[in-house]
Design goal:
This protein has 4 helices and 3 strands; from the N terminus they run αααβββα. It has 134 residues and is mostly helical. The chain has a domain of 62 residues. The protein has a 3-stranded antiparallel beta sheet with strand order 1-2-3, with no helix packed on it. Bound molecules: zinc ion. The site of zinc ion has 7 residues, from loops.
Length: 134
């Protein structure tokens, strides 16, 4: 069994330079707040769990939107594939006509199709009109 001073040496070795001072300040701050390390760990784990849950929910919504888009998207008049959609709202410099949305075809299972159209309707409005406003 290692002596306490050996443990302390190991701990100190893990904090090069000024990081030890920061670590000790943090420990003092935690101690002054009356919070235990386990309470802090639990709190951090809880935050991590909430973020993970949010992230999973966002992924689920995106997946559902993609599924609904594939089902309801306007079809390309040239090849019949579902058009892809992207917002142009952040492209103000190169978008003098004020187009809000770019609907376009792309590489699909059959070929490369270059069909595209522009719209003054926003992506959000188009999705809402198609019933894809999750
Ligand atoms: Zn096409």
């Amino acid at each position: 069994m290692l002596s306490k001073s050996k443990y302390m040496e190991d701990i100190l070795a893990a904090f090069p330079g000024k990081t030890l001072r920061m670590f000790l300040d943090l420990l003092l701050h935690i101690e002054n707040a009356g919070v235990t390390i386990n309470e802090l760990k639990d709190y951090l784990q809880n935050l991590k769990d909430i973020e993970l849950k949010k992230s999973k929910e966002i992924k689920r919504i995106i997946k559902e939107k993609d599924r609904l888009w594939a089902e309801k998207a306007p079809k390309c008049p040239d090849c019949g594939e579902a058009l892809k959609i992207r917002s142009l709202i952040s492209c103000k410099k190169a978008n003098l006509r004020g187009w809000k949305t770019h609907l376009f075809c792309d590489i699909n299972s059959n070929s490369v199709c270059l069909y595209e159209e522009f719209s003054l309707t926003s992506v959000e409005e188009i999705l809402r009109e198609l019933g894809i406003d999750l």
